[in-house]
Design goal:
Distance between the termini: 12 Å
Strand order of the largest sheet: 3-2-1-4-5-6-7
CATH topology of the largest domain: Rossmann fold
Largest sheet: 7 strands, parallel
Order of helices and strands: EHEEHEEHEEEHEHEHEHEHEHHH
Number of helices: 11
Strand content: 15-25%
C-alpha cells in the first residue's frame, strides 16, 4: 500500500505546541511507518517525519500572520490532489475542503472527521457521502446523515508521557482557552475547592480570556503558564492532582484527557460528547454534570489508583492501536485480505 496522509497547514506537523489535528496526523503517519507501510506525509515544509515529506507551503500559516490562510489551504490541498495518482489511497485529516476534489481523482479517499466545527459544513460531507469513506474519532461524534466505515480512537505515543506515582498539589486546565473548553468553570472549581489551578493553552477567544480568565490570574492560586510544548505538557499533566475538563460542548474526543491518563493523572470531566468513552467513571476519574458534583469528586480522587489510568490508556489509546485500526480501514477500502 502507498498511502498519502494529508495534514493541515495551520501548524507544523507535529505541532510545536497547540495543533491537535496536526498531532493526530503525525501519530497516524509514524504509527504506519512503524508497521512498515509506505507513507508520504503532506504537511508544511518545516515538518519532520520518518515517512516521505511533501510540501508546497513552507511555513505554517498559524505561526505567520503575513500568510493568507485560504491561499495556503488551497495550495496545500491541491498539491496533493495533483499527485493523487501516485498513491493507492489518500487519508484526509484536513476537514471538508479536500472532499470537493474527490470526484476529480481516481484515488480513493478516507477522511477522519475530527469533529464538526458547525452543522453548516455537514452538507459538504453529505454531497460526497457516496464516493468517500468517513472515520469518526468517537462513537458519540457521528452525524446521522452520514455513512461511516469505522470509529478509530485517537492514539498517542506513550513514550512521550511519563507515568508518575506521586502527584503535586494543583489542579490543571490544559487546552484551548475558550468557553467550549470550560476554562472559567475550572477557575470556579479551583476557587471553591481551595486548590491552586494551573492554566495552560492557546488563547483562542481573546474576549473570553480578557473577561472570564485574565481577571482571576494572580500567579498565586490561579496561574497561566501560556501555550505549553511537549516537555512542559508531560510535567504539567504528570504532576497534577487532577485534570479538570468541564466542557460546554459535545467534544468529539479530547487528547488532553488520554494524555493525562498516560501520566497516571485522573480526570474530572463533564459527561458530554466523547467523555463517557474516554473516562472510566470512578476508576480513571469521574464523570459529572455540575460544578458541585466536580467538587464532590475532588475529595474522591485519592481513592483512585494512578496505575489504572495508565493501564486504561495503554489498552485503548496508543499510537500502535490507532495505526492498526487505520490499516484495517485501508484494507477494507482496497479489498485487501
Amino acid at each position: 500500500m502507498k498511502i498519502a496522509i494529508l495534514s493541515p497547514a495551520v501548524w507544523r506537523t507535529p505541532p510545536r505546541k497547540y495543533g491537535p489535528w496536526e498531532q493526530v496526523a503525525y501519530n497516524i503517519t509514524e504509527g504506519l511507518v512503524e508497521k512498515g507501510i509506505d507513507v508520504t506525509l503532506f504537511a508544511t515544509g518545516d515538518s519532520y517525519t520518518r515517512a516521505k515529506l511533501e510540501y508546497i507551503v513552507e511555513k505554517p500559516y498559524g505561526e505567520n500572520p503575513e500568510l493568507d490562510a485560504k491561499v495556503c489551504e488551497c495550495m496545500h490541498i491541491s498539491y496533493l490532489m495533483e499527485k493523487a495518482s501516485d498513491f493507492d489511497l489518500i487519508h484526509n485529516n484536513y476537514d471538508f475542503l479536500p472532499l470537493t476534489y474527490s470526484r476529480l481523482i481516481k484515488t480513493p479517499m478516507v477522511t477522519t472527521i475530527h469533529g464538526f466545527s458547525s452543522p453548516k459544513i455537514i452538507p459538504v460531507y453529505k454531497r460526497y457521502n457516496d464516493i468517500n469513506y468517513y472515520v469518526s474519532i468517537s462513537n458519540s461524534d457521528r452525524s446521522k446523515e452520514l455513512n461511516y466505515i469505522a470509529t478509530v480512537y485517537n492514539g498517542v505515543d506513550e513514550k512521550q508521557f511519563t507515568f508518575r506515582e506521586q502527584h503535586g498539589n494543583y489542579l490543571l486546565f490544559f487546552g484551548r482557552i475558550h468557553h467550549e473548553k470550560g476554562t472559567y468553570e475550572c477557575i470556579e472549581i479551583a476557587k471553591k475547592y481551595g486548590m491552586k489551578l494551573i492554566i495552560s493553552g492557546l488563547i483562542q477567544d481573546e474576549k473570553y480570556f480578557e473577561e472570564k480568565v485574565k481577571p482571576f490570574i494572580n500567579n498565586k492560586d490561579i496561574i497561566y503558564v501560556g501555550n505549553s510544548g511537549p516537555e512542559e505538557r508531560d510535567i504539567l499533566l504528570g504532576e497534577a492532582y487532577a485534570l479538570l475538563h468541564p466542557i460546554n460542548f459535545e467534544e468529539p474526543f479530547g487528547l488532553s484527557v488520554v494524555e493525562a491518563f498516560f501520566c497516571g493523572t485522573p480526570v474530572i470531566a463533564f459527561k458530554r460528547g466523547a467523555m463517557p468513552e474516554l473516562v472510566l467513571d470512578k476508576r480513571t476519574g469521574f464523570l459529572v454534570n455540575t460544578i458541585e458534583e466536580a467538587l464532590d469528586s475532588l475529595d474522591k480522587i485519592k481513592t483512585l489508583n494512578r496505575k489504572d489510568c495508565r493501564e486504561w490508556a495503554e489498552s485503548k489509546f496508543t499510537r500502535n492501536k490507532m495505526a492498526e485500526g487505520y490499516i484495517e480501514v485501508y484494507k477494507k477500502i482496497l479489498n485487501i485480505n
